[in-house]
Specification:
It is built from 10 helices and 16 strands.
Length: 304
């Protein structure tokens, strides 16, 4: 699996749009109408969203999805729509969008002004305008992970972003990729340093149980070692692959090696996890929308 596939996609989406121009579980309960919510990360149907956002959202709603998570914000637009227009599109389709992915890189801080860039500030203003509750950064800026001093400064930027986001009524969060599990500083895994360096009240955590698997991370271990830290989960299964960086690629839930249901049940019962976001990035010859249908059917059989 590419360490930064989603981060690269978000960056490329920005260029495309321009061309078209923690605490315990109680802290996480308010945005969820029931005891949990099941949604889909729109990166799962990224090509469909690029071609026909409105039609794809209607298809997902027809399949039974109630919530989506974006990976398509750029130039103050969501998949080419203004926040107001995309909010209306979601409403007309019967969907909510509680969360979305926008990358926190080092260039979000303007060192000359000792402040965040306007572009980064707008991310949270627009998230609030479209009705989101969480802005989630997928992966780390690898340029800031080479030495202890740079990484310490970077973690301070995470905490400062958590303070910034609150001004717009948004909670900031982090989503793991794979890089954090096979890179170390002073013999300590980056992901563990990140979890210990970020303030749980300022930086929430979304655990991706698939991304970590190839480089040796195990979701159950982290759920047990950091109880209550993961308000959200990317629900993903993995099979071996000779074409992906970490030796694995995602597949339809229940067909891989992760042991997904056991992890889900533990996270819901013991970990304070309230949001379960389906994500499938590889399809083994199937159509992405068909995988989305099958994934949701399996989640429903499992009680989610």
């Amino acid at each position: 699996m590419n360490n930064n596939s989603r981060r690269k996609f978000i960056t490329q989406s920005a260029l495309t749009v321009a061309g078209f121009s923690l605490l315990k579980s109680k802290a996480f309960s308010k945005p969820f109408a029931n005891d949990h919510i099941t949604g889909i990360q729109l990166y799962s149907v990224r090509d469909d969203m690029k071609k026909d956002p409105a039609g794809t959202l209607k298809q997902l709603a027809a399949l039974g999805y109630k919530d989506v998570e974006h990976a398509g914000y750029a130039d103050r637009k969501f998949y080419g729509y203004t926040p107001a227009d995309f909010k209306k599109l979601l409403s007309d389709t019967g969907l909510t969008m509680l969360s979305g992915h926008s990358s926190l890189d080092g260039d979000r801080w303007d060192k000359s002004n000792n402040n965040f860039t306007d572009k980064w500030k707008y991310t949270f203003e627009d998230a609030a305008a479209v009705g989101m509750k969480y802005v989630i950064s997928p992966g780390v800026d690898e340029n800031l992970c080479k030495n202890e001093d740079d990484f310490k400064w970077y973690m301070q930027l995470f905490n400062k972003t958590g303070e910034l986001s609150k001004k717009s009524g948004i909670t900031f969060a982090y989503h793991n990729e794979s890089y954090e599990f096979n890179h170390y500083l002073n013999n300590v895994r980056l992901y563990d340093i990140l979890l210990k360096s970020t303030d749980p009240s300022l930086v929430y955590q979304q655990i991706d149980i698939g991304n970590m698997y190839g480089p040796g991370g195990r979701a159950m271990e982290y759920l047990k070692n950091y109880p209550g830290r993961f308000f959200s989960m990317h629900v993903k299964d993995e099979i071996t692959s000779s074409t992906h960086d970490e030796g694995y690629e995602s597949t339809v839930l229940g067909k891989g090696v992760i042991g997904v249901k056991e992890i889900l049940d533990y996270a819901k019962k013991n970990g304070g996890t309230k949001q379960f976001i389906i994500e499938q990035e590889s399809y083994q010859g199937l159509q992405p929308i068909d995988c989305a249908k099958e994934d949701l059917e399996i989640m429903k059989k499992w009680g989610y």
